[in-house]
Design brief:
By secondary structure, the chain is α/β, with parallel strands linked by helices. It has helices spanning about 1-10, 15-20, 25-30, 50-55, 95-105, 135-140, 155-165, 175-180, 180-190, 190-200, 205-220, 235-240, 240-250, 260-265, 270-275, 285, 290-300, 315-320; strands spanning about 40-45, 65, 125-130, 145-150, 230.
């Protein structure tokens, strides 16, 4: 249906007008039809598979897609945010709420954010972000129409993947989080010694494991289990049908016709390992030195996250539920 609607619009509208951005005006028609009333917000750390999973969810292009609207570097209106900005769940923040309202109502526009939009009608809004974990509960409290999916991938796989793309925009210094006053006072003061220990090491992998721990520990603690859907990258990769069944129940969409090539192509998140026949789940175990892995696990232990993944790099969802 989506492709049929798309072809109708392209037939009716001159290509020149389309080229000059008329597709943005279709927002008004979708709003009149309440097409953006249902918003799905997919969040997670960078290199965790959010692009791949958003492609799975929107395989039929039935959702209007927003690509990282809260990005603090690439999106001008969000440059006042710190990477991994923390907002207390009960905080009154009118300025940010206005921006967030534009995003979650579908009115926001930016060339990078809107790059995957098409001309036509939608059934909802799909937003994906990689710097938003620490204000996700604030969003939950302020926007009742937003269904939040937290995608989690093994911290060592994430750290190694970021290391291989060191020229991309990552947070590389955990003290950038520690220096957010409210975040430090609410969650991090007790871990000051850990920050100093990791800081002295100046180890990219350990820095990323510590950052991963913070941005997952906090939503794990803030949300009740029925308020958010936690999905694991590894479970989707191993058994996509079961994972998509969880998604289907949570967002109310059937996934019976996802093309096989989309299911079996985990985006750019797996880097070259997948292309070489190596598993994106456990290849990090042979690529990282044992000392880095041992020290990283000690960091995870400090946050009670050391049992989230087992010795085969597969997740333990029961352990997440304890939070």
């Amino acid at each position: 249906m989506a492709d049929f609607e798309h072809s109708i619009w392209e037939h009716l509208l001159p290509k020149q007008l389309i080229k000059h951005g008329l597709k943005f005006s279709t927002f008004h028609i979708n709003r009149m039809l309440n097409d953006y009333d249902d918003a799905i917000w997919l969040i997670g750390d960078a290199r965790s598979g959010t692009t791949w999973v958003s492609t799975l969810i929107n395989y039929d292009k039935s959702y209007k897609s927003f690509f990282e609207p809260f990005h603090p570097v690439h999106v001008d209106k969000m440059k006042h945010l710190s990477p991994h900005q923390y907002i207390r769940p009960a905080e009154k923040n009118d300025n940010f709420k206005k921006l967030a309202t534009d995003v979650f109502s579908g009115t926001f526009w930016h060339p990078r954010v809107d790059q995957f939009s098409r001309i036509g009608l939608y059934e909802g809004l799909l937003i994906k972000d990689i710097f938003a974990n620490l204000f996700s509960k604030w969003v939950f409290n302020n926007f009742s129409n937003v269904k939040i999916i937290l995608l989690v991938r093994n911290p060592f796989a994430v750290a190694l993947s970021k290391y291989k793309k060191k020229n991309w925009v990552w947070v590389t210094d955990p003290f950038g989080l520690y220096n957010q006053d409210e975040l430090r006072n609410d969650y991090l003061l007790q871990h000051e010694g850990l920050f100093r220990y990791v800081g002295k090491r100046d180890d990219f992998i350990l820095n990323q494991v510590l950052i991963w721990s913070i941005i997952h520990y906090i939503p794990f603690h803030q949300f009740n289990s029925d308020e958010i859907l936690v999905l694991f990258y590894e479970e989707i990769f191993k058994d996509p049908q079961q994972a998509m069944s969880k998604l289907s129940k949570f967002i109310g969409k059937q996934f019976d016709q996802i093309p096989e090539e989309i299911i079996t192509r985990p985006s750019k998140v797996v880097g070259t390992n997948f292309l070489k026949g190596r598993s994106p789940i456990d290849s990090w175990m042979s690529d990282l030195p044992k000392t880095s892995i041992d020290r990283g696990r000690a960091i995870l232990h400090e946050f009670g996250l050391d049992n989230i993944y087992d010795s085969t790099s597969m997740p333990n969802s029961i352990d997440v539920n304890k939070f």
